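dude i think i finally got it to work??
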Amino acid sequence: MMATDVVLVDDDDLFRESLARNLADEGFNVVDFGDGPSALDYLLGGGQASLVILDWKMPAMNGIEVLRRMRDAKRDVPVIFLTALTDQIYEEAALATGAVDFVEKSRSFSIVKRRIELIMSGLKTGGAGEDGKAGGDDNCLELGSLTLRLDTHRAYWKGQELELTLTEFKIVHHLAARQGADVSYREIYDVVHGSGFIAGSGEEGYRANVRTFIKRIRQKFRNVDDGFEQIGNYAGFGYRWNA
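look at this
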C-alpha cells in the first residue's frame, strides 16, 4: 500500500516538527510549511498531496484563505483544520469553505491519526451499496437525472457537472444511494467525520453543520437547475433523496 502524502501547514515550528515526526513514524509522507504562501506555491505548482492539514491563525495568510485559494484553483484535496481555535463559528466557516474536518490542537495524536484514516478510507470507498444501481458500471451510480462517478468523485445533474467538494459528493452519494429513505442528521454528519464524533455545543450541536452542508449542496444543484427539489426535509430528523 502506497503511503499517504500529507501537506502540513503551521507557523508553530515546534508543533509542526513534532506532528510531522509523528506522522512520518506512522508511515505518512509529510511535506511541511511554516506559512500559507509557501504551501500554496507547492500545492498549486503540482506538488503531491493526498491530504492537507492546516492551521488557522498564521502570519501573511491565514488557513481559511489558503483553503479558499486552493478551491478557487480547483485543487480539491481533502483539508483538515488543526487549530487552537475552539469556537463553533470557526468550525462552521471551515466546513462551509470546503474543509472535511476541524480538530482542536489539544486532541491527542491518536485522534488526529484516526481522523486522517477515516477521511482516506472514505476516498477509497467504492460501489453504490445494495440500495444503489450502478447500471452495469461499478464506478457509476445513476438515479434519474443524477450521475455520480465513484472513481473520480464527479457529480452530474441532467448532464451538467456540479462543482461539489469531496465532502459534498460523499453526502450526495449517501443520500442518493438510500433514495426515498429518511437519513438522520447524525448519520449524515458521520459520513463526514466518522461515527461517534461529538461536534459543536450540546448533544446535538452537529445539526448546524449538516444544515450548512445541505444548504450549499442544494444551491450548487440549483445553479444548474432552478427547479431542483430532490433533497427533501424531514423536520426535526434529517433529509431524504426523493425517489
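The chain has two domains: 5-123, 140-241.
im so relieved honestly
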